[in-house]
């Protein structure tokens, strides 16, 4: 796969007020551009040692106007992030100053980098594989220390190693199969179909074990989406606020206050939980509220966990029961709010609707029972996803799909073995499995997939 060899530039730090801002340049022309726009205090860029910082000024080569006092670093290929010549300009961190410097760099012939293009070049130049490149953005977006740890492990090459090892084993199996095709009369025991079947089974089980934890991986990377549902005024927004410990959502005693869907992350023991506050569900008459209710129902569809809320200080109403019907397919935590007020709710009736289900009693207003609720959410997560601790964790649907397809290919291979279909067919399936695993590391992946991955990056990465 080839790529454009032009020189690219971007602001790699967030735009806005900051101590320092970094503008990055990568490509053959990087050092030339630096020479034209940097006036050193002591050493000219062409005489600068790589990876050393030098002080000087960025000037506009047209007007000779000084733009900023900066530190500049030169990186000589191939020992760089992209494996191309690179320059980093450490300017003051300000919107105008950084943009001005970028414009000057571009006017000297660099092209604005597309999202993820530096990392894409690191991948295309073979410094990192595709799963490591994906880990770069996962590190940046990690929501909890647990997410970060897993992303760092993947960036280090942990997943790549595992995939390489499994591919190596597949190649070994393939060699056995091919030997049995080429020399069928040689009755060497380790080449018989039973041994091959055993080897395939072992590898398939290993892949299945990884797949079993893919849900956990996805949750650690993306968060568990948890929707708070209930009829108007039960205290959904109050609960969101007390979980966040800030007044994020509007709370009033008017039923139908929340209309938009509000999403915020909380961290429960290192697991990111996306809490979604929604409009109270009822037969709305108001046009805006109707849209809110529709959005609430859409959130329910996508949610992995439902916090179903009832008002302890009020009777169970038809609306409550209708909502209970809606969540039947979901993992539900029952919450009774406003326990600081006299209890009016018919708990027995509620228990009948949800037999055997634990009910958590809280007061969102007085912040009582919130820790118990968090513990229940954590329990729901661990019940749902199992242990996070040991072994390799895959965090992306792209990875689990590839492994699933590899497992399916191996299953077809096993079936062919059982049915004594020619060994060539078995070999073909093993080769397929090999290719699917190669999608993860990018050894075998099409350009559209690569494009889609890097499009999701931020600019300057
Ligand atoms: N200023 C700055 N800070 C940064 C980065 C950067 O590019 N610039 N990084 C970027 O995101 C991260 C660091 N990651 C990096 C990874 C590899 C190489 C690199 O040059 N690798 C070469 C040389 C290895 C070596 O000297 O040991 C290589 O692997 O061949 C640079 C940065 C975080 N902080
Ligand atoms: N006494 C008491 N009042 C509460 C509690 N939680 C919420 N409230 C009150 O109940 C009213 C409704 O609270 P909200 O959080 O806006 O309820 P909601 O479910 O988001 O309502 P909608 O957005 O209209 O669906 C407000 O007046 C809150 O102060 C609680 O634990 N105890
Ligand atoms: Mg609300």
TrEMBL record:
<dbReference type="InterPro" id="IPR025867">
    <property type="entry name" value="MnmE_helical"/>
</dbReference>
<keyword id="KW-0547">Nucleotide-binding</keyword>
<keyword id="KW-0630">Potassium</keyword>
<feature type="binding site">
    <location>
        <begin position="277"/>
        <end position="280"/>
    </location>
    <ligand>
        <name>GTP</name>
    </ligand>
</feature>
<feature type="binding site">
    <location>
        <position position="127"/>
    </location>
    <ligand>
        <name>(6S)-5-formyl-5,6,7,8-tetrahydrofolate</name>
    </ligand>
</feature>
<dbReference type="InterPro" id="IPR027368">
    <property type="entry name" value="MnmE_dom2"/>
</dbReference>
<protein>
    <recommendedName>
        <fullName>tRNA modification GTPase MnmE</fullName>
        <ecNumber>3.6.-.-</ecNumber>
    </recommendedName>
</protein>
<comment type="function">
    <text>Exhibits a very high intrinsic GTPase hydrolysis rate. Involved in the addition of a carboxymethylaminomethyl (cmnm) group at the wobble position (U34) of certain tRNAs, forming tRNA-cmnm(5)s(2)U34.</text>
</comment>
<dbReference type="GO" id="GO:0046872">
    <property type="term" value="F:metal ion binding"/>
</dbReference>
<dbReference type="GO" id="GO:0005525">
    <property type="term" value="F:GTP binding"/>
</dbReference>
<feature type="binding site">
    <location>
        <position position="237"/>
    </location>
    <ligand>
        <name>Mg(2+)</name>
    </ligand>
</feature>
<dbReference type="Pfam" id="PF12631">
    <property type="entry name" value="MnmE_helical"/>
</dbReference>
<feature type="binding site">
    <location>
        <begin position="252"/>
        <end position="258"/>
    </location>
    <ligand>
        <name>GTP</name>
    </ligand>
</feature>
<dbReference type="InterPro" id="IPR006073">
    <property type="entry name" value="GTP-bd"/>
</dbReference>
<comment type="similarity">
    <text>Belongs to the TRAFAC class TrmE-Era-EngA-EngB-Septin-like GTPase superfamily. TrmE GTPase family.</text>
</comment>
<feature type="binding site">
    <location>
        <position position="252"/>
    </location>
    <ligand>
        <name>K(+)</name>
    </ligand>
</feature>
<dbReference type="InterPro" id="IPR027266">
    <property type="entry name" value="TrmE/GcvT-like"/>
</dbReference>
<feature type="binding site">
    <location>
        <position position="461"/>
    </location>
    <ligand>
        <name>(6S)-5-formyl-5,6,7,8-tetrahydrofolate</name>
    </ligand>
</feature>
<feature type="binding site">
    <location>
        <position position="258"/>
    </location>
    <ligand>
        <name>Mg(2+)</name>
    </ligand>
</feature>
<feature type="binding site">
    <location>
        <position position="254"/>
    </location>
    <ligand>
        <name>K(+)</name>
    </ligand>
</feature>
<feature type="domain" description="TrmE-type G">
    <location>
        <begin position="223"/>
        <end position="382"/>
    </location>
</feature>
<feature type="binding site">
    <location>
        <position position="88"/>
    </location>
    <ligand>
        <name>(6S)-5-formyl-5,6,7,8-tetrahydrofolate</name>
    </ligand>
</feature>
<dbReference type="InterPro" id="IPR018948">
    <property type="entry name" value="GTP-bd_TrmE_N"/>
</dbReference>
<dbReference type="GO" id="GO:0005829">
    <property type="term" value="C:cytosol"/>
</dbReference>
<keyword id="KW-0378">Hydrolase</keyword>
<dbReference type="InterPro" id="IPR005225">
    <property type="entry name" value="Small_GTP-bd"/>
</dbReference>
<keyword id="KW-0460">Magnesium</keyword>
<dbReference type="Pfam" id="PF01926">
    <property type="entry name" value="MMR_HSR1"/>
</dbReference>
<keyword id="KW-0963">Cytoplasm</keyword>
<feature type="binding site">
    <location>
        <position position="233"/>
    </location>
    <ligand>
        <name>K(+)</name>
    </ligand>
</feature>
<keyword id="KW-0819">tRNA processing</keyword>
<dbReference type="InterPro" id="IPR027417">
    <property type="entry name" value="P-loop_NTPase"/>
</dbReference>
<feature type="binding site">
    <location>
        <position position="24"/>
    </location>
    <ligand>
        <name>(6S)-5-formyl-5,6,7,8-tetrahydrofolate</name>
    </ligand>
</feature>
<comment type="subunit">
    <text>Homodimer. Heterotetramer of two MnmE and two MnmG subunits.</text>
</comment>
<dbReference type="GO" id="GO:0042802">
    <property type="term" value="F:identical protein binding"/>
</dbReference>
<feature type="binding site">
    <location>
        <position position="257"/>
    </location>
    <ligand>
        <name>K(+)</name>
    </ligand>
</feature>
<feature type="binding site">
    <location>
        <begin position="233"/>
        <end position="238"/>
    </location>
    <ligand>
        <name>GTP</name>
    </ligand>
</feature>
<dbReference type="GO" id="GO:0030488">
    <property type="term" value="P:tRNA methylation"/>
</dbReference>
<dbReference type="InterPro" id="IPR031168">
    <property type="entry name" value="G_TrmE"/>
</dbReference>
<dbReference type="Pfam" id="PF10396">
    <property type="entry name" value="TrmE_N"/>
</dbReference>
<keyword id="KW-0342">GTP-binding</keyword>
<keyword id="KW-0479">Metal-binding</keyword>
